[in-house]
Every structure is written in structure tokens, then in C-alpha cells.
Amino acid sequence: MAGDRALRLAFEAALSGDPEAARRYLPLAAHRPWFEEMNFRDSCTLARALDQEVDPGPPNQTSAALAERLVLAGGLRNPALALRESGQYLPLAGGRRLFERFVLSAPDEAMALASGTTRTASSFRDLLSSVGSPEFLLLARLAADSSIDLPRRARMAILARPIARGELSFERALRIAQDTHEFFATVLDMRLTADPADLPSLDRALENESLVLCRAAQEGLQRIVATDLSRFRARDLYAMLALGRAEAPPAVFAAIFDRLLLPKWKAETPRGASLIAFLDGTDNWELRDFSSAALAAHRFDGLLAVAGREVVDRLARGLDRSRDPLREAIRLAEFVDAAAGTVFLRQMADVVSREFLRCRTASDPRGTTLYGLLAARLSVDSIAAPYLPFFQSSETLDTAALFGSANLCIQRHFFYDDDDGVRSFESFRKTYQRDPAWEIEDRGAYVRLTGRGADGRRIEIFANVPIDCHLPENRAREGEAQRRQQAIAAALDARGLVPAVIVHRGHSFWVRKTLSYLANTARLVILGSCGGTTEVHAVIEASHDAQVIATRGTGETEINDWLLKAMNDRILNGERIIYWNTFWQELRTRQGRSALFADYIAPNQDPGTVFLCAYYRCLDAMN
Predict the structure, then answer these.
(1) What is the pLDDT of residues 87-112, one digit of tens each?
(2) In a designed cystine with 376, which of 316, 387, 501, 582 is the match (CB 3.0 to 4.6 A)?
């Protein structure tokens, strides 16, 4: 794991400025799961540099061929970006071939770029026409037809292949594109019989529609349940909730599940028959994502009540064959915890035992380790013994681990430049202003808070001062948060200080920026964003010994401030060991009326965190 992470960092750095080093790393990086996540422009620059060189190697293994694969992988991951940046790769020998792949992966995005009267749009239509296939000619003709509004043309683009093949008339496709329910159902049905090469464009279209619908549900839940979603089939609702989960907070998921989806499944004979048939036809498509969303919305038991035996079997099988086995194992550990006390736990133990034996027989060390650790969580006596020691107790926090040799605990808080960041920062500062044990020093770009407590203990908190970049007067100051964090980094480096506590304050889409500052010295990480538990994997990967506090649901400013202040008071006043269960019970007593606090997870309460720590301890022992 450490070697893989080091290779990724080295390859990323080389791509951005050292083509010779990038060429050397390229064969090693080509088969890594993160290959597609490289910067697209940098990938194209490398490909152009290598495209002109003579390489005597096998055709598919030359540096130029590998670089073209790098461009293809990145472009298929983000085809909208690849289509906008077509000038970066069209000069390549295989540039036209890449362009065709990206259009087919996102025909709706191609439609948006080819529509209109600008010179850029006209050039894009010419490119589409030059391919010459019936499907591309249809896309070019549609893009030029201003009598059809752009949203319908984008939907028509998704239907271009069956139209070009004569399987769907133009007039019928136009009627389908006008109706959200009919379009969603049509694309989902197309997916059931599509060639594997066609799946990405269909999945993207379904995801985009799902996100829009779930976002609309946030804004008007009663209306959308009664109108837009009322005609959706059970399989449509399942797909929408799975694919739209980024815009479907627990309240939205629960309402749609309870009012629309669950009644449909219960009315079937046998219960959930359409779900099982759909999973059979799609190789359990999106089942783990749907189940994770159900778990966050406290509806996993409802899913088990409808099709528990089938669901459990499908969730537990084939983790080693998934795109990200570790991520799926973490989610299964969460399902194990949710199924505790049910009749399905024994079934899950049986499936995990069989999968463990299969992986061990196949000499698959990663699969064997993952299933062995899961077997330990499930108390499978015949397997568990070698894996149990890796589940070291996360029940406590030894606060001495947070302090350096000078009895000083360094904490670093990250705020971001939007209205939420400004509000959160003001609430954070007010929380400490009222306490005489704390001093606040304003250094312009950031503040430093110093607290002094028992036995000479000191805490220093460094926090950047955010601005709202959405305000007209601040729009020219984009990136200010990063510049102010760099000022903090310089101040810490000048004193030789390393943060032991990292706190993220802001929306979930900022979390990755915060985690880029995370080092293996972090011992406590607090993710105050909504749905912060989804980022625990990245935290533990960066620091195997970190304990993480996060939320499965909505992060709330007041609760974040109150929780952090309560913890710092204990640390500052000399409490040597924090017992998480006791601490959390005290917090729950004080915040018992807050439904939001119920979604905050202590380090020992998140089964995914506990599992992930055990996994890395096991790897460390093996190495």
C-alpha cells in the first residue's frame, strides 16, 4: 500500500513537469486502479511528447501506446472534460479514435458543445460529421436543429444509437425525451440489454437524471413524491436512489423509500420479486451503493425485511472481484454491524466463510485477508483466531499521543471560502472567546488560539480566516483559502511543529483538499462535513493510527463547535484517557433532543473505521 501510494505521488509529480521521469514510471502506473485519475492535460502533454518518438517495443507496450491509454482512461473517467479539451489529443496518431470514444461515452455532453451558432460549436459539428457513421451524422444534425430545445436534444443524444439503427423512430424518441419518467425508464431498460461498451453513457445519463430528481426532492419533497416520481416503477426508484445518493440526504432517501419504493416491493408476490429479477439481470448493479444509502437513512432493516436472504448473499459475495475490494469490504463491515441481532447474521457468516476458502484456495492474499478479517468480525471460530489481534481496541484515546515533547498539542482547522465557511468560522471563534482559559491572536490570514490547562498542558489551534468568494467584491480572490493555509504551513514549519489533530470544517466537496494536508503524524481527525464517514478510508490510508470522528448524515455547525470544545476542555484539563462510550453518552445526554447528533460517530462506533484500521495493521504485520 505504501509503495503504491508512493508510486502515485511520484507519477503525478513527474506528469506535471518531468516528462522523462513520467516515461519511466508509465509502465509501472499503467495497470494501477488510479491510472485514470491523473491530470488530463498533463496526460495529453506526455502523450504528444511521446507520439513522435520511435519505439521498437511491441505495439501495445510502447511508451506512446501507454500514454494514449493514459489519455483514454482519464477521458473516459471524465468525458465532458475530454470533449472540451479535444485540441489536447486530436494531434495524436490515434486522436480521432479517442474523440469517437469520448463522444460515445457522453453523447449528451457532445450535443451541448455542438449546439449553437458559435464558431466553436460549428467546428465541433464538423468533427462529428467527419466521422461518417449514421450515429455521428444524427448527432451533428440534432445539434444544428434549434427547433428542439437543448435539454431535449441532450436526451435525444442518449437515444441516438437505437435511432440510427432503426430500432426507435425519431418522432417516438422526441416524445420520450419530453417526459422525465418515460426517458428514465427507457434508458434503464436499454441498459439491461446494452453492450458493455455502451454502459458508461447510459449510466452517466441515469446518474445525471437521478441527481437532478434528488436535488428537486430536497427543495420540494411533497411535490416531487406526488408528481414526478409517482409513475416511477420500483426498479426506476431503486436506480434513482442509488445513483442520486450524492443529492439524496437521509431524509430524502427515507421519504421516497417509505412512501413509494417499499410499498411497491411489499405488494409483489413474492415480496421484492422485481428487485431480485433486476439484480439477476444486472449482476447486482449498484446494490452496495443502494444498501449504503439505506444504512445512512436507517432503512437497511426495511431492505432486509423485503429480500434479506438474497440481499445478504449478494452483498457478501465477490468482494475480491470488485473494482475496489477494500472499499467494498469496509461497506460489508458496516452491513455486518447493521445486521447484528438479526437472523441474517448467520447467513452472512456462512457466505463469508465460503468466500474466504475460495480466496485462500486461489492463493489470493488480499481477498483472503479481507474475508478473514470479516470472519473475525462475524466470530467465525474456524477462521477468526489469526485475525482477531488486529482489531485492537478503539474504545479509548490516549491523549498523551496528541502532545509533543513540550507538552504542546497542535491542531489545524480548515475553513473554506463560501458563506458556510464564514458562518462556521464565526461560530468557532465565539465558542472560544467566552472562555478565559483561551487566548485568540488574529494574524490576518489566520488566527492562533492558545489554551493553557493542568500540568502545563497547552493546545494551539491554527485556523485560516475564510472569506465568501460568492460575494461580488471577493470574486477576484479565488484560492484565498489555500493561500492562507500556506501561511499557516509556513508558520508551523518555522517552529518545527506538526499537527496531531486535523479538523475539517466545510461542505463535503472540500474534504479532499483538507485531506491533502494529512500526514501520518495525525492521531485524531474530525470531519465536520455532511456524510464525513465516506472519507474515513482516505484518512486511515494516510495515517494508520488516526482515530476519526465523522457523521453519517448532516454536519451541523453548532454541534461541531460544541463537540470540539468539550473534547479540548478534557484534553487541556489533564484527562489522560478519553473513553469514547462514556464521553459519547455524556454528549448524548446534553444533546439528547438533537436528531443530528445521532448521526455523529465516535471512532469506536464506526465499524468501517475499526475494520480499516485492522486491515492496515494486518498489512503492516505481513510486511
Answers:
(1) 999 999 999 999 999 999 999 999 99
(2) 387
